[in-house]
Design goal:
With 411 residues, the protein is an alpha+beta fold. It is 40% helix and 23% strand. It has a single domain, classed as FAD/NAD(P)-binding domain. The strands form 4 sheets. Strands 1, 2, 7, 8, 9, 10, 18 and 19 form an 8-stranded mixed β-sheet that branches. The structure holds flavin-adenine dinucleotide (FAD). Flavin-adenine dinucleotide binds next to α1, β11, β14, β16 and α11.
Length: 411
């Protein structure tokens, strides 16, 4: 018996919606299961790097994105905790366009609407509880809202470090880290929107303190939680909106009473950021997420394919997570299409995907680790500041290495 869908995608974030839309446009019967109702806010720095633009163009949503995103971001200022400032220009893409920011409520909704109009069936809200292999091939997906639905292939794009929906019990035990290990190696993420930050529109600021780093930038001006609010505010002259997101090691977070307290702690070590935000007013609630554990995860296991954060998570600091999600969703869809057209089995498709994924993304994950360590440690920050001041090209090289250069983003 034919499965209900050729491909089921678990998670409707940037990775899932990208893979699903491309596969549906190729004539495949695709379903997305997404457990939240959109539009919804999400913890994120909202920086959409130039590497995302070719994917947004391929999906046919680039013009819509540009129409609602914030101003072009052409410069980056890194503020390590020693009070110094390292500034560099950010490269443009081949079309002369720069990175921009868009609030996640709108970005994810834009991608989800596009998936629907590409022919994807969207189950939402639909929380997937369990995935089981079927003896005759394919998988059964169990969701408390939709019951059992079958699919030939499954893409895990649920954004989770420890996606264990389909792992046998023994693997779940192996992947579970101990409580202390988790606290030591994991981060919590927070974000809120602010008004009245004293910084230019074309700048993104990244700032560090002990075991904590933050990103601040001018984002899109209509950043509300529901479509009604977005529509209601259209055309209203408002002060610019700034997005502040920070990641803090769990052990450090445990010593503070909440995000406002953590921000005050960061200000103590980072006078530059405190100056920029001295008049700032928070205009949204804080949103929180975690624990996050940057690093490579699994790309293929137990017959399931992984994309986006579920496959590998880059440090939030470098602002490349959404780009990685979009690009890995596109990469996986491409490998599926080529493999299915050539009659290849899943194992062979997985081998090609794993090798292409490592070539494209491993360097960015390493760069994210390096940057975050430099920013969070006082000695490392000092050494880096001296090195970057003596050899400014080093900073540009580091930015290029993290994925922000046109040469790494072609296509
Ligand atoms: C503090 C912080 C700052 C960041 N700043 C930036 C930045 O400036 N720029 C940038 O590019 N990236 C940034 N990121 C990273 C970025 O947010 C992620 O990399 C990106 O969201 C990953 O996309 P994804 O599609 O893989 O997963 P997600 O966006 O997490 O989407 C996964 C989806 O799956 C759904 N889901 C989960 N479980 C289930 C289930 N069982 N059933 C059904 N649905 C499910 C979720 O509801 C969610 O919608 C930041 C992250 C943090 C924490």
């Amino acid at each position: 018996m034919n499965p209900d869908f050729d491909i089921a995608v678990i998670g409707g974030g940037p990775a899932g919606t990208t893979a699903a839309a491309i596969l549906a446009a190729d004539g495949r019967k695709v379903a997305i299961f997404e457990h939240r109702v959109f539009p919804r806010q999400k913890v994120c720095g909202e920086f959409v790097s130039i590497g995302a633009r070719p994917v947004l163009r391929q999906l046919g949503v680039l013009a819509k994105f540009d129409a609602v995103a914030g101003p072009e971001i052409r410069r980056m200022a890194a503020l390590p905790q020693n009070g110094r400032i390292l500034e560099c220009t950010l490269p443009a893409d081949a079309h002369g366009c720069h990175a921009r920011a868009l609030c996640r409520a709108r970005f994810d909704n834009l991608l989800m609407q596009n998936a629907k109009s590409s022919g994807v069936t969207v189950f939402q809200p639909a929380h997937v509880d369990r995935i089981e292999p079927v003896a005759t091939g394919g998988f059964s997906i169990f969701s408390r809202q939709c019951g059992e639905i079958s699919a030939g292939k499954v893409i895990m794009a649920d954004g989770k470090a420890n996606s264990s929906l389909a792992l046998p019990a023994v693997d779940k035990i192996k992947t579970a880290a101990s409580g202390h290990e988790l606290l030591n190696t994991s981060y919590l993420g927070y974000k809120a929107h602010f008004r009245d930050c004293d910084m230019p529109d074309d700048l993104t600021v990244i700032a560090g303190g002990p075991e904590i780093y933050a990103g601040l930038l001018r984002t899109s001006d209509l950043c509300h939680d529901t479509n009604e609010q977005i529509a209601g505010n259209r055309g209203k002259a408002e002060a610019p909106t700034y997005n502040m997101a920070f990641a803090v090691r769990q052990l450090q977070a445990a010593e503070h009473s909440g995000p406002d307290d953590l921000l005050a702690y960061l200000f103590k070590f980072n006078p530059g950021l405190k100056r920029i935000m001295r008049r700032a007013r928070r205009e949204s609630a804080w949103f929180a997420c975690g624990p996050m554990r940057p690093g490579v995860r699994r790309l293929y296991a137990n017959g399931l394919f992984y994309a986006g954060n579920a496959a590998g998570e880059v440090h939030a600091l470098v602002g490349e997570g959404m780009t990685l999600a979009l690009r890995s969703g596109r990469l996986l869809a491409g490998e599926f299409m080529a493999g299915m057209a050539a009659g290849k089995g899943d194992a062979e498709i997985a081998k090609n995907y794993q090798s292409a994924w490592r070539t494209e993304f491993t360097g960015r994950l390493d760069a994210g680790n390096l940057f975050s360590n430099l920013l969070m440690r006082p000695m490392a920050g000092n050494i880096a500041a001296d090195a970057f001041n003596c050899f400014p090209e080093l900073l540009h090289a580091a930015v290029r290495f993290s994925g922000k250069a046109a040469s790494r983003q072609a296509g």
